Amino acid sequence: MKLNYSIGTDEEVQRIHETSLKILSEVGVSFRCEAAFDIFRKHGARVENGIVHMDEKLVERALSTLPKTYDWYDRLGNKITIGNKITHNAPSYGPMYVCQNGKYELSNHKHLVNFHKLHETSKVIDISNPNVIDVSYVHGEAREKYRLGIALKYCQKPLMGLVEGKAVATESLETMCRFYGLEDVRRQIIATGLIDTMGPMQMSTAMSEALITYAELGQAVIICAGQTFGVTTPQSMAGVYALGNAMILAAMVLAQLAHPGTPVVYCGKFDSSDMRLRSAAAYGGIEAMLACATSRRMADFYGVPLHSGTSNTDSKLMDYQAGAESFMNLLTAYLLKVECQVHACGLLDSMNSIGYEKFILDEEKIESLKHLIKGYEIDDSTIMFDSILRTGPTGQHFKRTQKSYRRDFIMPKLSIRDNHNSWMQAGCPSAESLATKEWLRRLEEYTMPEMSGEQAKILDTLIPEEYR
Description:
Elements: H1 10-26, E1 29-30, H2 34-42, E2 46-48, E3 51-53, H3 56-63, E4 70-73, E5 79-82, E6 88-89, E7 97-100, E8 103-106, H4 109-120, H5 143-154, E9 159-160, H6 165-180, E10 191-196, H7 205-216, E11 220-224, E12 227-228, H8 237-258, E13 264-267, E14 270-273, E15 281-282, H9 287-302, H10 320-335, E16 340-341, E17 347-348, E18 353-355, H11 356-374, H12 380-383, H13 385-391, H14 403-408, H15 420-425, H16 431-445, H17 453-462
Parallel strand pairs: 6-16, 7-18, 9-10, 10-11, 11-13, 12-14
Antiparallel strand pairs: 1-3, 2-3, 4-5, 7-8, 14-15, 17-18
Keywords: Methyltransferase, Transferase
Organism: Eubacterium callanderi
Family: Belongs to the trimethylamine methyltransferase family.
């Protein structure tokens, strides 16, 4: 017996798709990239004053080459498959602040290394990410190489890519190829780039170039329509999805025209909003559940994997709000079988911050959600009628722990479940205090990956001397 969660009708999904096609044709998209314009013109799209207009025939032809799944390889040759309705978790993406034991400070090298170590030792994080936290403490020209070098030094899991324009995308992919010992980067998918549209119906030069580069070099991309309800979109839920879906479609079309068969992950990451706020965005809003569920329907409609979910919250503290909002987002992702979940653990402060204790607690919640979606079996052996009959109406079943109990129930390590007296005698621990001990233990027990002499030389070209 398993939980089910879905939204909408086939007719409503079709309506969103048709409206998106109308937007692409009549409103158009700004790509701000000559290479993108050349590709669209070559395939018959109308380009006027920097705006690309594409008709339904062009869109449908491009969508026909989208793959349903793809294999993503790590440096050891192991792979994960994206697109089989199994959730794979990726780390945070660029928080500026780090919260440790309730205190905040700016991101720095120590925190970057620490979180890479936590990701590498995590049972629930499946993917590594060079963009884990903000690295503005590194000189601008060295920043992207530094990101990549630190990730390659400390992590062995499949790696997300760098997407700051054509040059960075090309150089980073070629560097990863050499580090992995591959002759040609096109041989297999070693990176997935997160392409964020960053606004209604437009894509920056850097994002457009990176999208084309990843496609031409045989890598995968996540297309994220990062929009805020009622601010960069119409002030209705339906309008949000129609506009956001149109932008995702436009980027998917460009990827397929640049290189047919490019794996694309759909990401309708539409943020809630609160007009009372200066920033307007409200990442922990309940509407995120609607966004995730609608995105699942649209990704299935186009036959591609989905990225959605997150451990996000708008709270700045480890409080009720943080737990409730994070659980809401994580639960939705697992119920909908989201294939790729970036920002899976540790987020606070509307994605501006990441916390050590929050990371550990989110990990444990994900383990419980993995248990939840397995459901439970109903058959003669699990109904256990014979046991009920033997025990009778006044007996008890607590004789010994059976396999069925270990299978159907999960026992978290960080939740406080003791009775009051036992809790007092233990020193009144909190989930946060237990989480602190856990992340410190993990860092202490981390071991560096093995590395060849050639790999060490590559890292020396990437990481500034003061950070080696």
